[in-house]
Amino acid sequence: MLLRVWWIPQVPMPAFRKEVRDLVEAKVLLDTLAAYDAFQFEHNLKADYFNVGGLEMYEPEDEDWYEWYDPQTGENINRLSIPQLEQCQAEEKGSTSAV
Hints:
By secondary structure, the protein is α+β, with helices and mostly antiparallel strands. The chain has one domain (3-97). 36% of the residues lie in helices and 23% in strands. It has helices at 23-42, 82-97; strands at 3-8, 16-20, 52-59, 64-67. It has a four-stranded antiparallel beta sheet, with helices on one face. The protein is globular, with a radius of gyration of 15 Å.
């Protein structure tokens, strides 16, 4: 599964996108980007900010990118913890190897 993080540090500017290896790497990157924006605001490098980000997955059948969500809960990456994402990855590997 191809994954990429998208991040808009100041809405309405265009999104920055970065491919990631897995769900945990995506979560760490999203949390880091959010912390960096907060750091800049706290140290007066930004007067204000309105950021947003998420995770997309590539769907080869449609040749397009779609927002990733947990198929079990319907939650997006921003609502899940690293242990929950590790569980998602384990389940994904289990279903892939069973095919």
